[in-house]
Design brief:
Order of helices and strands: HEHEEEEEEEEEEEEEE
Number of helices: 2
Shape: globular
Distance between the termini: 93 Å
Structural class: alpha+beta
Largest sheet: 8 strands, mixed
Strand order of the largest sheet: 6-5-9-3-2-11-14-13
CATH class of the largest domain: Mainly Beta
Number of strands: 15
Low-confidence stretches: 25-31
Mean pLDDT: 84
Helix content: 10-25%
Number of domains: 2
């Protein structure tokens, strides 16, 4: 087959166009990837010794109750209030489940839309767990952490990890300077143990908490109180703590 000069010109132009597009793609997506393609490895901050001690005291009660009731731990929420009452650190468990057919150590989670609030992920013993952050192509403000477990989970297995976030808080004291802090209700203890607790700032005073029956109070400084679903009467009012902050 004979090619005339027009054919050769067309081939040359096509090659140039492909080369130009490839160069632009490399420049935009490889050398300078857009925000939603960027992945950043993160290291969870090491937990303060005092905070870890408080959580472990609370978790110990949960372990005892789970063992006595012969039920697995379903979820834990532990809230640390700041001294000025304008912020708190929320400790929440997230369950990672391997639904595949091979051992897995990396698990994608939804992170939300405020990445700066995330402090990190941890084992229930408080050991930091590394993770990678990536972004959704259609919603760059949303982020998706990929949690990297040190020990892979077997197929069908699951594990709880702690996620810590810094959250704003607005406390409204009454005329006596007392603040009531609500913690909602706990799931009924049908298949698992669920727990919720609050740790007040140093030198704060715990005035009262409801319900009293089934609660676990830790009178040391700072004061803490927690509830476990298997110890509560479902007809009791929602969980709450009333306290005064140190001046």
């Amino acid at each position: 087959m004979n090619f005339n000069w027009k054919t050769w010109t067309g081939v040359a132009v096509t090659v140039l166009v492909i080369g130009f597009v490839a160069a632009r793609w490399r420049s935009s997506f490889v050398q300078r990837p857009p925000d939603w393609l960027r992945q950043q490895d993160k290291h969870s901050v090491r937990l303060p010794a005092a905070s870890l001690k408080h959580f472990r005291e609370f978790y110990r009660q949960i372990e005892i109750e789970a063992e006595q009731k012969n039920l697995p731990v379903g979820s834990i929420q532990f809230l640390e209030l700041a001294a000025d009452g304008k912020e708190m650190i929320a400790w929440n468990t997230e369950r990672l489940a391997n639904q595949g057919f091979n051992p897995a150590a990396n698990f994608d989670q939804w992170g939300g839309s405020e990445e700066t609030r995330l402090l990190g992920y941890y084992t229930l013993e408080g050991d930091p767990v590394n993770f990678t952050v990536k972004h959704h192509p259609a919603r760059p403000q949303d982020f998706f952490p990929v949690i990297h477990l040190l020990k892979p989970l077997a197929p069908g297995a699951s594990a709880l990890v702690l996620r810590l976030d810094r959250r704003p808080l607005t406390l409204k004291p009454n005329a006596k300077g007392q603040t009531q802090f609500g913690l909602g209700r706990l799931i009924k203890p049908a298949n698992a143990i669920h727990a919720r607790g609050v740790c007040l700032p140093d030198h704060a005073q715990l005035v009262q908490y409801k319900p009293e029956k089934g609660a676990f109070e830790f009178p040391d400084n700072p004061p803490m109180v927690g509830w476990i679903n298997s110890c509560l009467d479902p007809s009791l009012p929602p969980l709450s703590a009333t306290f005064t902050l140190a001046h």
